[in-house]
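Materials and Methods. Structural model of tRNA (adenine(58)-N(1))-methyltransferase catalytic subunit TRM61. The 300-residue sequence of tRNA (adenine(58)-N(1))-methyltransferase catalytic subunit TRM61 from Mucor saturninus was retrieved and submitted for structure prediction as follows.
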Amino acid sequence: MRGYSQFEQGDFCMLRQVKTNKKFFVGPLEAASEKGVKGGAIAHDSIIGKQPRSIIRTGNDSVGYMVHFPTLEEFVVNVPRACTPIYPKDASTIVQMLDLEPGHRVLEAGTGNGSLTLYMARAVAGGGDCVGKIDTYDIRESHSNTARKHVERYSRGKYSPVVSFHLGAVADTLPQQEEGKGQYDAMVLDMPEPCDQIPRLLPYLRNDRFLVCYLPNMTQVLALAELIIDLPLVMEDCIEAEWKEWEVRATHIKSRIKQAKEGEEVIVPHDAWVCRPKNFDVKGHTAFLVKLRKSAAVVE
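The predicted structure was written out as tokens:
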């Protein structure tokens, strides 16, 4: 949301409680609506027209909240879900594995909630003559419609022109739409059985470029490894992305010391630091990310 000076109707907002840093996701902002939070409720009208980092107070003036535009990570994990999203730790890793840059054309099969769609759209968007394109396919109309809504609502729809939504099995639908359009710079498949689709999709991938499969279990990875033995594909990476969050904050610790004169033991607070992993919220296994490179023979 960089570049926006104030909140408008239809925007999304993160409320951060000033004292505790606890966050609440709000939106889309609508006149006369409100968000229930600790300490009361925040009226959407009190946010609309305000600048980021403004302090908004609950209706009874008991608790203060600072307002922020949501990051892409905050947006994709908080919007309503048609299905489990590809979480930011995997989406950002996939963007890196595909080696995306402005101007690239990308094929996505398995639109889902549209979280990876947004991450890739931001990577390829660029500007001027270097605007990329995401073609994303899903067999479920409800998933496609939800993802389209999320793309249109994030950052006032700035990435909507980059994304085209399609319904149907990708290998069946793609040949009817891609005649004369050239090859893709990257592909990503989030589907239960990619092995059925990959041989039919390979002609649409540029040589020496990448295809990433999102596979929840190792049995699927092994099936894929067996498939590519007879295909012009090389498995370059099989990654399990994990994030471990750490809690780092100042605190007060009460220490017992003896007063020099009276010899009595008293409790005296002193500053210290809490620095520990958030073991209760480790972002662990979601899927294996398998990176394949197209390795067809070069004809000179």
